[in-house]
Structure formats: C-alpha cells, structure tokens
Known about the structure:
- The chain is of the alpha/beta class.
- Helix content is 57%, strand content 17%.
- The protein has helices at residues 17-27, 35-44, 51-60, 66-80, 94-104, 120-134, 141-164, 177-190; strands at 4-11, 31-34, 84-88, 108-117, 168-172.
- It has a 5-stranded parallel beta sheet, sandwiched between helices.
- It is globular, with a radius of gyration of 16 Å.
- The two termini are 15 Å apart.
Amino acid sequence: MAKYNVLFVLGGPGAGKGTQCDYIVRDYDFVHLSAGDLLREERQRPGSQYGEEIEGHIRSGTIVPVQITCSLLQRAMENSGRKNFLIDGFPRNKDNLEGWNKAMEEVADVKRVLFFDCDEKVCVDRCLNRGKTSGRSDDNEESLKKRIHTYNTSTMPIIEHYRKLNLVSELHAEQTPDEVFGDVKKVLDDLTL
Length: 193
C-alpha cells in the first residue's frame, strides 16, 4: 500500500494553525488530525486501551508517550479511508520527532511542514481574545507564557530540523486569515502528492 502523505502544521499558540487547517480541508483533499484532539477523544472512549494512561499523564501534567500518539494518528489515518493528512501541533519536541520517525517511517511520508510564523505579542493577543469565548482553559496569560516558552525551546528545533531537509514552508501568520491562506494555496498548489 502507498504511504500516507503528511503535512505537519506548526507554529506558536495563536498563530492561526486551526483556522488555516479549516481552510485547507475546505478547498483541498486533506483530513485534519489534531494530536491533542485525538488524545482527548481516546481518553473519553469507553473501553479504550489507552484511556487510563492518557488520563494519568494529563492529571500529572506529563507528556503522553509518543507511541500512543503515533498509534492514534495511524488509526485515524486508516479509519479515514483517505490519503492526505494535515497533522496539527505535532511533533512538538525531539522525542515526538524520534518516535514519529520510528513508528511511522513505513506508513507516512512528511511532504512539507507548514510553519506559521507569528510575533509572540500577536499570538498572545489572539489567544486572550479567543479565550473570552473558546472555553479553553489554556487561553490565559499564565498558561500562554508556559506554552510559548515550550514552543520556543522544544518545537523550534523541530522546525529547524525540517528546514535543513528543505521541507519547511514559512508563512507569515500576522496577516489576515485570507491573506495567509493565499500564501498557503501557493505552497499546496506546488506540492506533488
């Protein structure tokens, strides 16, 4: 069987990753997979083989083992019946990257990394604004400081890794969503999938 085509979607909190994924899914043949959403869904699923372990990690504030995340991503890919995937917010760190390479090497090819680069102040303002209506407990200043620090120290090295492989498309995410999507379309229209 042919490997799945994957685009990693990375950028700081509030950079507009989710909005752009919605636009891509609307206009292109991609399935949007969010690692965080898959973990939350699995935790709630009755009879889940991973539910208790995921719950334990969430309760203790530790990172869910990458093998579980990759297993959930692979299952979602297989269940979708589709070939092209946006993976949002993963890999977040070196351990995620190594686990992905080990578990998914025979399953998926990373075709591009869409890196939504955005000024930290813009990201914080967007998240605080979103937090007024989103109900997300992590859209507050205290959480955002931690999330941005983690992004800068853990995720930026992943972007640099893929940059060395000439797989990063850097998108200036401070523009309006439609302007950003205009740039995204240029990248996607040049992809051979």
